[in-house]
């Protein structure tokens, strides 16, 4: 089971070199399970940052810094979408103003053309292409798409449609989690 | 040749006494780790993959566990395993690392407190008791994990998180209704614009750089040429030669493209983007 621990800090005072005059500056740090963060982590951090900046209403908190730290605890496939989900839940739990929620869904395209949602590590290795989508909660629009491998346009559209269906289940999970959390306290 | 072992300790939550927690985590990780099996025959070394031969555990001689003591009021009060708040206000800290054979591996004292001999002896007795408990817990956990792995049950971090707490939520894998997915996708594609023309043959200038397509003709060149024409008409002949060279180049590359359809075209190890070919049969030369 893939697990990612997310910690969100902010909106806090930003360093003068990093502050933006009209909006909040969002920074994402992704720490791998083994070793020091490398180039792959840096590129994933930028992907996550762009996705979060699209939903966070940064203009309500100018000249502040929002820091999101993600720690990979275990990786059994679909890591990027797990990071996306963890990021959104962290934003939710922290109470930051958001325009929409988002969720991450990974699709694996097998060599024979079948689509697998949320593939395991073994399935990811054998797949012809792996597509990760960040899907917003308003009208299921696509916030981010990341592809590894080659696929045709039709296959990508099919994966996207399947991911949009799966997003419903993930958003339901968000709702249940938040309800349980705030009903007990 | 030796093995290098790397131990990464990730601190997830700091509520005091991270030394003890980190030491326990570290020693358990080392006990749990399995390295690939190796066989040495004279000078030859073969390393087997985990699929070929079962990985082998490290040889751990003993398990040192740290226990921390916080002192208050110049040694009057003693707290074992301090929390974050207690750590902040303590006078001094004593860390003793001991294994279950009652051998002290490390003693470390810090802070403004001065300790008396019998205090340290008392602490080491407390440590012995704690270490015995912790070592037993570790052994049980390692055995459970080994059993789970052998019997095919679930193991790992996600399983060990307690389930019914407020801060952890689990959902079993959910079924997703994908009945109309293909039709929906087909509709989207039918309405979308057709994709741009595909350039199938990349042109390799150097190993590591390739050029697909020719790009838009730069209008900078037009400006320069028109200026040159106005300024220096005696260079008209060389201009004409330059134009011809360019034409020849495009013709040449297009013929190359026709002949080799699937393979990428390697021009040379020239480092420029524009290669001026002086004669059709000659190989392109470096222009700088």
Automatic annotation (TrEMBL), chain A:
Protein name: Exosome complex component RRP46
CDD domains per the UniProt record, alphabetical: RNase_PH_RRP46 (cd11372)
Keywords: Cytoplasm, DNA-binding, Exosome, Nucleus, Phosphoprotein, rRNA processing
InterPro entries reported in the protein's UniProt record: ExoRNase_PH_dom1 (IPR001247), ExoRNase_PH_dom2 (IPR015847), ExoRNase_PH_dom2_sf (IPR036345), PNPase/RNase_PH_dom_sf (IPR027408), Ribosomal_Su5_D2-typ_SF (IPR020568), RNase_PH (IPR050080)
Family recorded in the similarity comment: Belongs to the RNase PH family.
Gene3D superfamilies for this protein: GHMP Kinase, N-terminal domain
GO biological process: nuclear mRNA surveillance; poly(A)-dependent snoRNA 3'-end processing; rRNA catabolic process; rRNA processing; U4 snRNA 3'-end processing
GO molecular function: DNA binding; RNA binding
Subcellular locations according to the entry: Cytoplasm; Nucleus, Nucleolus
PANTHER family linked to this entry: EXOSOME COMPLEX COMPONENT, EXOSOME COMPLEX COMPONENT RRP46
Quaternary context: Homodimer. Component of the RNA exosome core complex (Exo-9), composed of EXOSC1, EXOSC2, EXOSC3, EXOSC4, EXOSC5, EXOSC6, EXOSC7, EXOSC8 and EXOSC9; within the complex interacts with EXOSC3, EXOSC8, and EXOSC9. The catalytically inactive RNA exosome core complex (Exo-9) associates with the catalytic subunit EXOSC10/RRP6. Exo-9 may associate with DIS3 to form the nucleolar exosome complex, or DIS3L to form the cytoplasmic exosome complex.
Residue ranges annotated for the Exoribonuclease phosphorolytic domain, each copy included: 1-97, 101-165
SUPFAM superfamilies for this protein: Ribonuclease PH domain 2-like, Ribosomal protein S5 domain 2-like
TrEMBL record, chain B:
Keyword Iron applies: no
Domain Exoribonuclease phosphorolytic: residue ranges: 2-36, 62-126
Recorded GO MF terms: mRNA 3'-UTR AU-rich region binding
Subcellular location: Cytoplasm; Nucleus
Listed Pfam families: RNase_PH, RNase_PH_C
Bias type Basic and acidic residues, positions: 244-263
Protein's recorded name: EXOS9 protein
GO cellular component: cytoplasmic exosome (RNase complex); nuclear exosome (RNase complex)
Superkingdom, natural source: Eukaryota
Similarity comment text for this entry: Belongs to the RNase PH family.
Bias type Acidic residues, positions: 222-238
Region (Disordered): 208-288
One GO term (biological process): nuclear mRNA surveillance
Keyword set, alphabetical order: Cytoplasm, rRNA processing
Major place of residence: cytoplasm
């Amino acid at each position: 089971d893939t697990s990612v621990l997310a910690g969100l800090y902010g909106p806090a005072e930003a360093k003068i070199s990093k502050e933006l005059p009209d909006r909040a500056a969002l920074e994402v740090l992704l720490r791998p399970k083994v070793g020091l963060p490398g180039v792959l982590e840096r590129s994933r951090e930028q992907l996550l940052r762009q996705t979060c900046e699209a939903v966070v209403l940064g203009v309500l908190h100018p000249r502040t810094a929002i820091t999101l730290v993600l720690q990979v605890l275990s990786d059994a496939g679909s890591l990027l979408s797990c990071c996306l989900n963890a990021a959104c839940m962290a934003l939710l739990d922290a109470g930051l103003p958001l325009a929409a929620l988002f969720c991450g869904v990974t699709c694996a395209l097998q060599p024979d053309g079948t689509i697998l949602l949320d593939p395991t590590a073994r399935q990811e290795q054998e797949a012809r292409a792996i597509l990760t989508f960040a899907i917003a909660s308003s009208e299921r629009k696509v916030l981010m798409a990341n592809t590894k491998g080659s696929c045709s346009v039709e296959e990508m559209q099919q994966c996207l449609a399947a991911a949009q269906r799966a997003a419903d289940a993930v958003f339901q999970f968000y709702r249940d989690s938040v309800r349980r959390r705030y009903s007990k306290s | 040749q030796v093995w290098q072992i790397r131990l990464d300790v990730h601190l997830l939550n700091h509520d005091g006494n991270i030394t003890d927690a980190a030491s326990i985590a570290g020693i358990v990780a080392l006990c749990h780790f399995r390295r690939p099996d190796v066989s040495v025959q004279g000078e030859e070394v073969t390393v087997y993959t985990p699929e070929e031969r079962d990985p082998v555990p490290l040889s751990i001689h003993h398990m040192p566990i740290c226990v921390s003591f916080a002192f208050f009021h110049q040694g009057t009060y003693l707290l074992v395993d301090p929390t974050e708040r207690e750590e902040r206000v303590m006078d001094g800290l004593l860390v003793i690392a001991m294994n279950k054979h009652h051998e002290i591996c490390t003693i470390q004292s810090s802070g403004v407190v001065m300790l008396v001999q019998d205090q340290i002896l008392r602490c080491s007795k407390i440590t012995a008791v704690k270490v015995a408990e912790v070592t037993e817990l570790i052994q049980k956990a390692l055995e459970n994990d080994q059993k789970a792995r052998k019997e095919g049950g679930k193991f790992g971090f996600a399983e060990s998180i307690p389930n019914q707490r407020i801060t952890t939520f689990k959902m079993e894998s959910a079924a997703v209704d994908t009945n109309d997915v293909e039709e929906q996708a087909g509709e989207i594609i039918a309405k979308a614009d057709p994709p741009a023309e595909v350039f199938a043959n990349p042109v390799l200038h150097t190993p590591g750089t390739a050029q697909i397509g020719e790009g838009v003709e730069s209008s900078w060149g037009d400006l320069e040429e028109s200026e040159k024409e106005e300024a220096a008409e005696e260079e008209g002949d060389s201009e004409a030669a330059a134009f011809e060279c360019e034409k020849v180049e495009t013709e040449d590359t297009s013929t190359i493209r026709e002949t080799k359809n699937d393979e990428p075209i390697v021009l040379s190890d020239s480092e420029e983007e524009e290669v001026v070919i002086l004669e059709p049969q000659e190989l392109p030369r470096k222009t700088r």
